[in-house]
Amino acid sequence: MNYESELNKELKNRHDIETALNESSIVAVTDHRGVIQSANEKFTELSKYTNEELIGSYQNIINSGYHSRAFFHNLWKTIGSGKVWKGEIKNKAKDGTYYWVETTIMPFLNDNGKPYQYISIRHDITQRKQYEETIKQLAYYDQLTSLPNRHLLNEWGNNLEENHKITVFFLDIDRFKSLNDNYGHYAGDIILQKIADRLRSCLRDSDFIVREGGDEFIILLDNVYKREDIETFASKIIDQFEKPIYIDYQSIRVTTSIGISTNQLLPGHDHRSKAIETFIRNADTAMYHAKKQGGNTYCFNTQSQNHDMERYQHMEHELRFALENDQFTIVYQPFIGLESEEVVGLESLLRWYSPYLGAVSPAEFIPLLEELGLIIPVGKWILKSVCQQLKEWQNEGIFLQRVSVNVSPVQLRNRDFVNDLKAILTETKIDPAYLDLELTEGTILNVSESAAVINDLQALGVNISIDDFGTGYSSLNYLKQLPINTLKIDKSFIHDLDFDDDVIVNTIINMGQNLNFTVLAEGIESYDQLAYLQNQNCHEGQGFYWSKPVNATAIPYLYNNNGQEQYGAPASKH
User: Fold this and answer.
1) Would you say 436 and 348 are in contact if contact means Cβ atoms under 8 Å apart?
2) What are the backbone angles phi and psi of residue 397, rounded to the nearest 5°?
3) For the GGDEF domain, which residue ranges apply (predicted)?
4) How far, in Å, CA of 280 to CA of 284, rounded?
5) Does the pLDDT of residue 214 top 60, yes or no?
6) DSSP assignment letter at 61
7) Nearest to 97, CA basis, from 143, 121, 59, 62
8) 3-state DSSP: the chain helix, strand, coil percent, rounded to 5?
9) Domains, the chain, with CATH or none
10) From edge to edge, which strands make up the β-sheet containing 208-213?
């Protein structure tokens, strides 16, 4: 049979005829059952079958198995009713390679209007599909782990039915930054790839996994809502993490913290993406609570956690405007010479009153200031305000040995910190000897990094104190290397002076005296504590026994009354 003549009879559109017969077209004619009756040279070239192998074979000889039964059912239903079908088909060549063709299938109808023959006109679009696949891979998949990303997650979620139940797991690898620091980013990437493979192996076909970014993963379980099933799956994940990961014959163990948001019903499509974001955010919130428990565990999301997160978000928003809106104040708590029992110095402490949140504890907002980088401008404001206040007191005849300011590790790492302090001292005309900078042990743990900055500060003439001494990484090494003036014994050792704490307190006092440091005990609340420390020749004390932190206006009264006035209920201290 001459398929060219048949085309001329059956196709009314001359353009289609020319397209079908040009050299780039792949053409085949089949009977009504799909048995190939003829095929052009381009068909044999692309399919890798000879003409003899094709003639008499069913069209499905090139079936790749890629398309579903429903796909082919729709195709045959369309052409069987005498209509033209157009679409894209992935075929399989004889050598096992795959190729894509843009296909038009047209039926030839008999006098009864029934198809007795079909002609398929194909164009090779394999290269285009490869480009599309590359673009899709970049757009929808994480390049390191090949896991889907959030864009593909949205598509997955939109394909689920309304009121469908999903359970969301939010995973974060514990102390991943330390793994990167200790083993290098190459090892970190391998760890992420292996973890991704292990997580993928835990899932069913209907579940979904996403690499959120960094060391975070999101898993959405389809129609799993019983508590026992959820806990079983969480334990399964933790078990996967407990298996060691080997890199260059080195065994590395990692753990994960998991937050779980469960029994979530999907709304209609108009609100689907927003709902899934909420589910993920709730699981993320629960994950942070798992972190607080030490990691290597899972935690279910609760309403109280969501309330805490809402407070955190409000706090973050408010903090960004707190400085420019004059919401910060500075209070002062006196240092008392234990021999003279007179005020010898003050510690400045930051307080924040938010119009929206009320009084916020420093334990809440100072870590957030550090996290947001706002501690740099706020810390600079504190230093300037304290120096200005110190100058005012000196003009009033109040000469304290020193006034201390807490310095964050973030400030100390700021390259402008020393120059900013120097400019403040010059502007306020304060003798640097009256200013004391309090650093925690953790701040100066890495002596090689902090020593240069601390030496520069000491060169300005300011004093350096180690705050909360004994709770961090105490080391005689840094005590000998750095120009430290004062050790502040943490209040936890003073609160209950039992035998063990006696030994620690005595050791710190003796060590400080031998190294010619001033030793100050924090948290003194009773006469017995005071008497004990005086008996041990501790130099100075601080605590509610004398005064809670007070406003600057109360300092002249305290100073003139030798710190004997007690001010009532304790206040938060940072």
Assistant:
1) no
2) 90, 15
3) 164-303
4) 6
5) yes
6) G
7) 62
8) 45, 25, 30
9) 3-130 (3.30.450.20), 142-301 (3.30.70.270), 313-560 (3.20.20.450)
10) 208-213, 216-222, 165-173, 256-265, 297-300
